[in-house]
Amino acid sequence: MKVLVAHASRYGATQAIAERIADKLTEAGHEAQARPVEAVADLAGYQAFVIGSAVYFGKWLKEGTDFVRRNRASLAAGQPVWLFSSGPLGTQTTGANGRGVRAGAEPAEIAEFRESIHPGHHRVFLGALDPGKLGFRDRLIKALPAGRTLLPEGDFRAWAEIDTWANEIAHELAQAPIGRRAGEPTE
């Protein structure tokens, strides 16, 4: 099955997650391509989609959100779709409010996407922050006392968890007839 793993990534951490997912899907026998959302002009020819974005301040990057909205009709047409977000940083599992860090990190757009394109799953993965790659605006935010707390440096991505999710997608793709969403009951 031909799978597009589209990503919106500012500094490369989300791109690396997308590439890892595409590699795992390819290992499982699917034809998977990881591509930046800006490089995808047409969804024709793909039979499944995994779409991810980096998350900043509780929202997907504009490029990722625009991609889903622009392709809403195609993504809602019946092929399997999965979404992922990359963003929370650090090793804490619960936030100050006592909720799970990732549960509270679901981006604002995901509710809209669930309603409009009906993805099979949405996963939030921990991200990575390399201060040497930060742009001017993000360096300014990082320089603030609150910025240092909100933006800890390091690679917090859980590769085994990402691999497990990609393998689950590969399994669902193998079980889903073309034109039926993964996870949908068969008649």
TrEMBL record:
One of its GO terms (biological process) is heme biosynthetic process. Gene3D superfamilies: 3.40.50.360. Residues 4-141 form the Flavodoxin domain. Coiled coil: none annotated. This is Menaquinone-dependent protoporphyrinogen oxidase. One of its GO terms (molecular function) is menaquinone-dependent protoporphyrinogen oxidase activity. It comes from the Bacteria. SUPFAM superfamilies: Flavoproteins. It comes from Pseudosporangium ferrugineum.
